[in-house]
Amino acid sequence: MDSAKVFSMKFSKVYPLLVQKAQRKGRSQAEVDEVICWLTGYRQEELEACLEKDVAYGAFFEQAPAWNPGAG
Predict the structure, then answer these.
(1) 17-26 pLDDT, tens per residue?
(2) Cβ atoms of 50 and 60 closer than 8 Å
C-alpha cells in the first residue's frame, strides 16, 4: 500500500489494526498504548482524544507533542 494513502487514513481506523496485530503476537492494547505514548509524547487521554476525532494517521505523528529521543 502506498505510504501517502496510509498516512491519509484516519488514525481511528489504523489503531485497531495495530492492536489486533499486537494481540496476535501475545501483546495487549495497553502495551500498544504504552509504546505509542513513549514514542510520540502523547498522554493516554490525548491518545484517546485522537481516536475520537477524525485525525489522519500522518497528522497524528506530525502533531506528536514530543518525539522520544531514544526512538531513533
Answers:
(1) 999 999 999 9
(2) yes
Of 53, 68, 56, give the one whose Cα is nearest residue 11. Answer: 56
Instruction: In whole angstroms, give the CA distance from residue 40 to residue 46.
Output: 11
- DSSP label of 56: B
Query: Phi-psi category of 56—alpha, beta or left, where left has phi over 0 and alpha has psi -120 to 50?
Result: beta
Query: What is the pTM for the complete model shown?
Result: 0.89
How far is the C-alpha of 63 from the C-alpha of 43, rounded, in Å?
13
Amino acid at 19: V
